[in-house]
Amino acid sequence: MNRPTISTLGQLKAAGYQPLSIKEELRKNLIQELRKGKNDAFRGVIGYDKTVIPDLERAILSQHNIILLGLRGQAKTRIARLMVNLLDEYVPIVAGSELNDDPLQPLSRFAYDVIAAKGDNTPIEWLHRNERYTEKLATPDVNIADLIGDVDPIKAANLRLPYSDERVLHFGLIPRSHRCIFVINELPDLQARIQVSLFNILQEGDIQIRGFKLRLPLDLQFVFTANPEDYTNRGSIVTPLKDRIESQILTHYPATTAISKQITTQEARLKEPQKESITINDISRDLIEQIAFEARDSEFVDAKSGVSARLTISALENLASAAERRMLINGEAKTHIRIGDFAGVIPAITGKIELVYEGEQEGAFVVAQNLLGKAIRALFTEYFPNPEASKRKKQTRVYQPIIDWFGAGHSIDLLNDISKENYQRTLTSVPNLINIVEKYHAQATASEKLFLMEFLLHGLAEYSLLSKSLVQSGFNFGDLFASMFDMTEDEN
Fold first, then answer.
1. Model confidence pLDDT, tens digit, residues 199-245
2. In the CATH scheme, what is the code of domain 254-380?
3. % of the chain beyond a pLDDT of 70
């Protein structure tokens, strides 16, 4: 829709304009979306179709203020920002108004004076919906002047007005967000006395600034976000304020790796040269998602803190960059992801998890390596027979030739940044490794088969059929029992 051409109050009246509150406006537009059979306003928010989005739609239909409660990385702020899609594209305001005054329902002294002086010739401006969103991160240093307002001595001096005149007031973010969506992120971080100042705005729609007797019927859609961890670690939401927020909506992490993979693929910022030159297979993408799921269940990771979806996004970006770096070092034009490239994922894991005491004792690097190992173990049986079952059934001991080869004293070093030729030579030096891969994945490409060979070695190590130890820039694979006898006291 083009910007409306109406430019005066008289023209606006003649056009039959009828003002709506922002909550009525959101409700009206949501009803239109739902009647179409699909709400496109929250497109891009994945995994909430049956849970969070229906709750949010019910809250909007009820014209409620909303608090989104959930752990970090659960798209709370994104949901709040997407609510602007349910606003009218343009709304009229009195030209020059600081408080977005509706021409037919003026709010400020400025708007009253302009309309009284110019009548139907009052100039009108049009405010786009993208300008009707205000966001404030709650921090301990936020004060009442920031949110509500205060007396401005400079304005008083310039206008030569006494401090008793309301025109000397400098309005804060909330009054200047009249007819807008106003979001306060991390609400528990807001000091209790500041939270108290919101009581009247939420209940009666008016504000109090120092000693002024103001009755400003502010029209706002409040959206708050909070993390349950903050209730104990950094602050709390005062009970009377929580009581005034009509709808509390609980967010959550993706229920399945498939949903999580959709989110990661949508959000990861891979460069076009990376997409063109690096093949990232489905197993690699599944491994990244499985790492997050393993972390959320890990005894070493603080469950109250949560494991953000940003972990998998950063991990995929790092994985592609690790492969790209290896490709550039070896002077190659194209490459396929390897398990060794997951060494580049470790920084994305260690920076995104909060460890409990036992995890701190282990160390972030060790915990991250363990999470990767558990992810490999969890996915291994989707691509190869279960090694534990093959132990019990002699006729299905498909891995025995490989185990016997390592048991005869052989070992290999699989380094992360080796060239494709050395990578292939190292893997094919293990007898029967390629035979198992071809037996279960005959249709795979040559590069995929090499990946599966490496994946097979890591999987057997995770099932304690081979030993796997870190060496400089890679792993050494060998016989499990021989490695036990070679352990130092500290390694044991």
1. 878 877 667 776 666 677 889 999 999 988 655 445 688 888 989 99
2. 1.10.8
3. 89
Contact 63, 77 (CB under 8 A): no
Encode pLDDT of 267-326 as tens digits.
Answer: 999 999 999 999 999 999 999 999 999 999 999 999 888 899 999 999 999 999 999 999
pLDDT at 395: 44
The per-residue pLDDT for 299 is: 95
Q: 124 - beta bridge partners?
A: 94
The CATH number of 9-250 is which of 3.40.50.970, 3.90.70.10, 3.40.50.300, 3.40.50.720?
3.40.50.300
Residue given tokens 């939270």 in the structure block: 195
**pLDDT confidence of residue 217:** 84
pTM score: 0.87
Average pLDDT over residues 4-22: 93
Cα distance between residue 191 and residue 453, in whole Å: 57
Average pLDDT across the chain, whole number: 89
Distance CA 337, CA 371 (A): 19
Amino acid 88 reads D
> What does the CA dihedral 321, 322, 327, 328 come to, rounded to 10 degrees?
70
Question: What is the structure's pLDDT at 146?
Answer: 87
pLDDT at position 157 is: 66
The 3-class SS string of the chain reads: CCCCCCCEHHHHHHCCCCCCCHHHHHHHHHHHHHHCCCCCCCCCCCCCCCCHHHHHHHHHHCCCCEEEECCCCCCHHHHHHHHHHHCCCEEEEECCCCCCCECCECCCHHHHHHHHHHHHHCEEEEEEHHHCEEEEECCCCCCHHHHCEEECHHHHHHHCCCCCCHHHEEECCCHHHCCEEEEEECHHHCCHHHHHCCHHHHHCCCCCCCCCCCCCCCCEEEEEEECCCHHHHCCCCCHHHHHHCCEEEECCCCCCHHHHHHHHHHHCCCCHHHHHHEECCHHHHHHHHHHHHHHHHCCCECCCCCCCCHHHHHHHHHHHHHHHHHHHHCCCCCEECCHHHHHHHHHHHHCCCCECHHHHHHCHHHHHHHHHHHHHHHHHCCCCCCHHHHHHCHHHCCCHHHHHHHHCCCCEEEECCCCHHHHHHHHHCCCCHHHHHHHHCCCCCHHHHHHHHHHHHHHHHHCCCCEEEEECCEEEEECHHHHHHHCCCCCC
Q: What is the pLDDT of residue 156?
A: 62
